[in-house]
Amino acid sequence: MDPLVEIENLKAYYRAFLYGVDREVRAVDDISLTIARGEVYGVAGESSSGKTTLIKTIAGAIRPPLRVVSGKVTFHFDGGTQDIYAMKPEERLALRWRHLSYIMQGSMNVLNPVRRIRHSFTDFAFRHMKVGKSEFFERVATHLQRLKLDPHLLDAYPHELSGGMRQRMTIALATILTPEFIIADEPTTALDVIVQRDVLSMIREIQREMGSSFLFVTHDMGVHATVSDRIGIVYAGRLVEEAPTAKLFNMPLHPYTQHLVGSLPRIGDATARPSLEGRPPNLAMPPEGCRFHPRCPKRMEICSRKVPPLVTVEPQRRVACFAVTGDQV
Amino acid sequence: DDYTSLPRKETLIVENPEGTIKNPGWFNIWVNGGGGVSTGLQQLTMDTLWYIDPEQGLGGATWDNSLAADKPQYNADFTEMTVKLRKGLFWSDGVEFTADDVVYTVKTQMDHPGMVWSAAFSVQVASVEATDPSTVVFKLKKPNSRFHAIFTVRWNGAWIMPKHVFEKVEDPLRYDFANPVSLGAYKLKSFDPQGKWYTWEKRDDWQRTSLARFGEPAPKYVTYTDPGPPDKRTIAQLEHNLDIIHDNTPEGMFTLKEKSKSIETWFPGFPFAHPDPTLPAVIFNTQDPPFDNADVRWALALLIDIKAVDMASYRGAATLSALGVPPTAATMKDYQAPMQDWLKNFEIDTGKSKIKPYDPTVGQQIADILRKQPKFKDQIPTDPQAISGAFGYGWWKPDPKAAGELLEKAGFKKSGGKWLTPDGQPFKIRMTVEGDTRSVFTRAGTLIAQQWAAFGIDAKAVPAAKLWQVALQPGDFQVAIAWSVETWGGDPDLSFFLDSWHSQFVAKKGDNQPPRNWQRWSNPELDKIIESIRGISADDPKGVELGKDYLKLVAREMPTIPLMSYNVFTSMDTTYWTGYPTISDPYTDPVPNWANSRLMMVKLKPAQPK
Amino acid sequence: MTSYLLFVLKRFGQFLLVVFLGVTITFFVTHLTPIDPVEESIGAITQMGQSDPNAIELMRQSLRELYGMEGSIWQQYLHFWLRLATGDLGPSLSAFPTPVSTIILRSLPWTIGLMTMSTLITFVLGNAIGALAGYYRKNMVMKAVSLVFIALLPIPYYILAFVLLIVFGYLWPVLPINGGYEMNANLDLSFALVLDILKHSILPAFSLILVGTGSWLIGMRALVSNIITEDYVVFAELGGVPKRKILRSYISRNAMVPQFTGLAMSLGAIFNGTVITEIVFGYPGIGNLLIEAVHAGDYSLVLGLSALSIVGVAAAVFIIDILSPLIDPRIKVE
Amino acid sequence: MSALLSLSHVTKVYRQGGMLGRRLITAVKDVSFELGEEPEILSIVGESGSGKSTIAAMILGQTEPTEGELQFSGRTVAIHSRAERRAFMKEVQPVLQNPFEAFNPLKRVDRYLFETARNFSFSGKRPDREQAERMADAALVHVGLTLEEVKGRFPHELSGGQLQRVAIARALIPQPRLLVADEPVSMVDASLRMAIVNLFGRLKNELGLSIVYITHDLATAYYISDNIIIMRKGEIVERGQARTVLDNPQHPYSRALKDAVLAADFSPAT
Amino acid sequence: MFTIVRDLARQNMEFLCGLLLFAVIVGLIVVSYFSPYGATDIYLLPPDMPPDGEYWLGTTSRGQDVFWQLTTALRNTLFFGIGVAFISRIISLVVGLVAGYAGGAVDRVLMAINDSVMVIPQFPLLILFYFVLKDSMTWTALIVIMASLGWSYDARLIRSVAISLKTRSFTTQSVYSGMSMRKILVEEHLPYVLPIVFATTMNNMIWSIGMEITLSVLGFTDIETPTMGMMIYWANAHSALISGIWWWVAAPVAVIVVLFLALFLLSMSMNEYNDPRSRLNRMGS
Ligand SMILES: Nc1ncnc2c1ncn2[C@@H]1O[C@H](COP(=O)(O)OP(=O)(O)OP(=O)(O)O)[C@@H](O)[C@H]1O
Ligand SMILES: Nc1ncnc2c1ncn2[C@@H]1O[C@H](COP(=O)(O)OP(=O)(O)OP(=O)(O)O)[C@@H](O)[C@H]1O
Ligand SMILES: [Mg+2]
Ligand SMILES: [Mg+2]
């Protein structure tokens, strides 16, 4: 495996100690993972389990009150090694878009509403392309066509496009420079199923062609099943399971994953699906031990005492559950 | 350069107190069309039959036959006035001035209601005709011994119109008289279309004007300008960009005196200012109880500490007057000085006691107070005569006890430190003052109200931006600071204001009061005095005696409380011109918006060689 | 496009309504004034040395007739609109018979010149500093500069103007302090005249700029600090778009949208004139004219000037409303 | 036959633009359907912009149809007096799309429960605080919460699922007969989504509530609903029993829709 | 509450400065009630004394102590400004919220009124009111008049927010909770527009106090009530600037500046605190 991104023991907390508030939200709590070159890595998990925080931290897009408390994020762009939290701001800036592009959550609303879309392309990409204006726009047009977007739309204002078109624009913007690493947070929420399917297959196509790595988050397990090579399941700030897509769906190991996969309704199958009991943990005061244990059908005594470590159970497959791995260190 | 090409050394720059002229191109002075009047227009280009100078005048008398060759000639019953005109006077366009111009002036105005003197002529004149090119005969509708006053300049008068210009005009009411044809020694050179300045140039044929009798006017150019608020006038004069300031704040005047070596003022020392022949006073609305009661008015007078008022308003730079005439040089001589003994013995009856309220030493006291201030030490006269001339003779002594007695006599009661009116209400006085327009009066009023308040009266000063229009005229006030006495200045004849004090003109409550009896006071004794004055000619020496009767009457009745002269802080810069009128050479009033100030032109001398 | 035209028409109707209401209110309020222009005129005339009460009564009647003040207020109101329909504002009552329009047109160019210039400079300056101060929030220089302007904001304008006048006209007399040009200037159009007019406008404009900048600055700063947390700004930052570009095209550009409304309003309000500037610097203009007209009870002139200002502000609101869909593409034409 | 809700030939035309130069958009075109007296869950699915939300708005009386008639319990749905409106709201309540948006972030969530309780009491009397609390608690129990868990909390202190359940509880307080839920689960994660959908099923069975369920998620529609309507461009293209229709869609659009659903099973990517 | 203030003061320089400046203002207002001199009494002290140990801020040409004058003037001016701001805020809130929420004909009528008020030139109107009301032109009357002139722009601003609030789904939720329009406006929408209201309050105060000063300078106000404008009026009537009595002018100007800097700094830091986004920003710093 040729790693492109290595994340080691990453901890990122939201800290608020002011104005009578005294709170620390451990949204990313000790996560390690590696993404290979050319790989599509999907992240899933409950709402507010820290998915966005995790990929923000990876993208180096942190602002107060979010802080990286410890851990390392290392990239291997152009064969080198870049530790994103040890770099100078200018160097970090130089990586952006050229090597690393990031599609934020709510990507249908990230374009400047009062400027024509054309200008966003110039602002983001023109500097890096080292070509003349007209050639630049030719390339942009070609790229847009691949995403089934009419190049005329460059002269539109964002609000003149439908949500789905805007999301595709953002994707186009993020991929135009063929960066080595693309991060996307729920990139297809505004699309109806038919459009969504088209967009996803295009993303996949482009990613393959460019050999880029792709890290993305979505709630839609159907999307994961279609696009991801590997999936990481996050629960309450922790990575609880990581597996190649097929294995995760066919044989989920962690009880949360099992529930997630098992509860998905399918057309043609009307059997009742149970819903998870209890409520999501408060990340400011997470349960001791395994964070899932209050809701876990397979909980054991040790679960409330000890944090289950993420154990590699087979190649490319890790899980953090005592019920699976036994009470080993 | 020819962008601003007037040679400063040949130009006299004068403040026009009218400020910025709203309708600058309007020179038709016979129609109130928003144009300026004291832009030089009336001082330098207008002329009429006679002038009375508020000071001594040139040519040995305050009376001056200007366009007229002689004094007015009346018939025995004052129903006809004949005027002899000078010959050899020319309009600036070369047309000769004749009796026809005078006749035209009167007839045109009578034919056009709305022109400035139209009503005045219509009411009085039965007919007017030129019996020959230099004689005009007026037939009057009813006897009037002072009909000539309308053609006599004090501040101004009915100016003569150029017939040859106006007769070509379709409607004189709508004619702007652009490029005004001048009968004076100057003619228009240029003016600011925004109304900030007017410049006049000496006529080449200045000899053919009435002013030539006194010599050649010195300034080649005279500019009348609006230099802005007082502080800016001060700055402009400190920088020698303004030769004559019309008026200033007392403090502005002190600053000028302190900082400029070249400033000349009417009095060389305190109070610097020129006393205008108007008399600021506390004016009661005598139609309004309790101010219809002389005892109440007197009580309020006795509560005033005039020294404090003087310091507050003029900072000591005022000339006090206990009598109902302004303390100008002429009235000082004719009335104030001769009446000192009467004043000293004057008594009032408070109901409980008789007191002599007059304090003849107040002027002296103020001089002493001022002398203690290091800044002014050397500028205070020491000669008693000069002190009286500068600060006035005396005034009423504050006498709270007598005031209380007078109020009790009028039925007032004091309870819990507060005075109650006879019907048991708190005695409340609202003193209307003019606000910003004449801030020294506002200062005086504020202090007087405070003095009354200290005595247990609910007194307060309230400003009215348009005092005359919103308070005095409609009678919508209790007490105000303003003036209702205005004299010729240079002549002891009091008819100038007194005639309008006749009870026949007092408006009913709620109606508009015609000027000047703002106090709406009527008194049979006064009517008799006025009628006697009407029956004698203006220069009859009996006039002064009647004037004294009037003064005694108002001292007893106190319809207004006379305070002090209206001091105008005129200052003159000697950098470019000398020979301004001052108390030591009082040939005319220095205040430059008066039409008489044309006399200055012939007395000024350039201070610097050309 | 037709729908836009219709929107414009509808807005224009509203504009007319507002002008009508505004002028109507002003008409009745000005006619409430206790100051009677006839009495004012009589005051001016009696000052000229006559006070015979009989004559005054006669004068009163003839002036009343001359000034066309007969008839009830409703008749006058109707008359006013009829005249206005023909573009005639009538004669001024304090400068009879000069037409109100002549008087206004004499002063108006000065007001427009000075105010447009200073409003635009103030707008640019305030917004530039405000944008920088909002973006570089921790920068001490920006903090200091904006505090200075904000501190200038509440200083009574009269005082500020006067201090400037004393400093630059007296203590260090380098600038003219009175009028729109030199006294006795040759008013034929020349380079010297233009230069002189510019020189005379420096202090008045400077004073207006000093007091005016702060409020734009505050507004801009607040807008910018809201905008910098918007997703599209964060996205541009993450996209490595250079800071200057972000400040210009993402932050200032977007914050300008509401600021333009303010600018239009200020430009519309130009027709109110600046009384104090005109008083302090003796600058020609309509502000002082208005005050004088009020003082003189010249409601013809007051109405003329007010109508101008009403139309000015209403037009500004109207223009901004019809332009805003063009400035801000998000605004939909309802 | 008396129906709870019936739409007959309902058309809604929106005007865009000015008064004359308008552009007409037919958001809903000649739509008719009925909900019977028996409690049922009716799903409406379709492409975006096909008029689903417009139908919801018309059912709720927020906007009036251009043509056709909507009847609720045999009476025309039209907004007249305040009292009529209130009576109508007692019977028909909405569940909004985004639970985070549905509550004023500056106000406590229980406020909406108490307000509803006070404004829609059954007795006609305004209940006092205690009664209101009891009513709120009863409604919360239906959705698996208790008043204790919710009382005094601000929206940001609750999870999305909790908020959505509180919103449903609020809608239950007037004891309505019909819930109109416009994409109630599109903003929540897969497991919460199931919790809410399951809740709908329970409410139908236990409280006899009818629900109009508007969604993009065909899988949940299949899972929970009795009947389904598939819409496209303002028109109904197919309707019928949910399972019948989805198992074997007839209309080409319905088929395309079904095909586009990404199955959440692993099928090797193409 | 206390901890909030404490943390604000600790973390936020602006807040601390604003608080200190505000304390100065409050201090001045409090001591104004203990003035040894009657506020309107004149010629009690030697005039024109420069600031020194005895007269901290000197005396005026009217023989008043500038310091004590200032305290009373500040109090009156501030109450005036607050009065105007308060009343005009209420009007603009009612008009803005109702117009925005109700929409349709109500909106059009309200906005026509609003715009008409907005376009009327205020200054001549105020002067006319002076002429018409004369003695009845009390401070209360002036407050009411100024307030009724000073709301329209802000009402438009509030309306624009109200329009968007109307489309928020919590408004729908409130409607279906059976809340009345009044309740929705007051309890649901009002909290949202409060930050704008606070922001416009300062502008409104600057406007009204500036207007008061301008009217005073032109000689239109009640000259017996000491206010900032009156102090400047009297100083001006005595040519204080040109006569070197600078303290008479400098003192009120300084206090006004301090007042507004305090208000500005406080409002800025409070807004930051109020807006969770910027509050959090600061936390991390
Ligand atoms: N700015 C912030 N300040 C404090 N806490 C925050 C902040 N942003 C997020 N959080 C908290 O951090 C936790 C993780 O949030 P995050 O946005 O990463 O969740 P997520 O998994 O992306 O959820 P979703 O699926 O809803 O997008 C949540 O508990 C959230 O409340
Ligand atoms: N208030 C309105 N004014 C004008 N047009 C409207 C309005 N509301 C909706 N429309 C239009 O009506 C059509 C149907 O909209 P609707 O919101 O009902 O669709 P939808 O099926 O709910 O879509 P989505 O799945 O995206 O929510 C769209 O074309 C929309 O633009
Ligand atoms: Mg997220
Ligand atoms: Mg919808």
UniProtKB/TrEMBL annotation, chain A:
Predominant place of localization: membrane
Superkingdom of origin organism: Bacteria
Gene3D superfamilies, alphabetized: P-loop containing nucleotide triphosphate hydrolases
InterPro entries in alphabetical order: AAA+_ATPase, ABC_transporter-like_ATP-bd, ABC_transporter-like_CS, Oligopep_ABC_C, P-loop_NTPase
NCBIfam families noted in UniProt: oligo_HPY
PANTHER family hit by this protein: OLIGOPEPTIDE ABC TRANSPORTER, ATP-BINDING PROTEIN (PTHR43067:SF2), OLIGOPEPTIDE/DIPEPTIDE ABC TRANSPORTER, ATPASE SUBUNIT (PTHR43067)
Protein name: ABC transporter ATP-binding protein
Species in which this protein is naturally found: Rhizobium indigoferae
Automatic annotation (TrEMBL), chain C:
Record domain ABC transmembrane type-1: where: 108-324
Parts of the chain that traverse the membrane: 12-32, 110-135, 147-171, 260-281, 301-323
GO cellular component: plasma membrane
GO biological process: transmembrane transport
Subcellular location: Cell membrane
InterPro entries: MetI-like, MetI-like_sf
Protein name: ABC transporter permease
Keywords: Cell membrane, Membrane, Plasmid, Transmembrane, Transmembrane helix, Transport
Family, as annotated: Belongs to the binding-protein-dependent transport system permease family.
Cross-referenced CDD domains: TM_PBP2
Presence of the UniProt keyword Iron in the record: no
Membrane-related topology note: Multi-pass membrane protein
Keyword Cell membrane appears in the UniProt entry: yes
TrEMBL record, chain D:
GO MF entries: ATP binding; ATP hydrolysis activity
Keyword hit for Membrane: no
Keywords recorded for this protein, A-Z: ATP-binding, Nucleotide-binding
Pfam family, one: ABC_tran
Gene3D superfamilies: P-loop containing nucleotide triphosphate hydrolases
Every ABC transporter domain range: 5-258
Similarity comment: Belongs to the ABC transporter superfamily.
Identification of the protein by name: ABC transporter ATP-binding protein
Organism of provenance: Rhizobium leguminosarum bv. trifolii
UniProtKB/TrEMBL annotation, chain E:
Membrane topology value: Multi-pass membrane protein
Top-level taxonomic group: Bacteria
Any matching Pfam family: BPD_transp_1
One term under GO cellular component: plasma membrane
Example GO BP: transmembrane transport
PROSITE patterns xref list: ABC_TM1
Alphabetized SUPFAM superfamilies for the sequence: MetI-like (SSF161098)
Keywords of this entry: Membrane, Plasmid, Transmembrane, Transmembrane helix, Transport
Keyword Isomerase attached: no
Keyword Membrane: yes
Segments passing through the bilayer: 12-34, 78-102, 109-133, 139-158, 189-210, 245-266
Ranges for domain ABC transmembrane type-1: 74-267
Subcellular location: Cell membrane
Assigned protein family: Belongs to the binding-protein-dependent transport system permease family.
Protein name in UniProt: ABC transporter permease
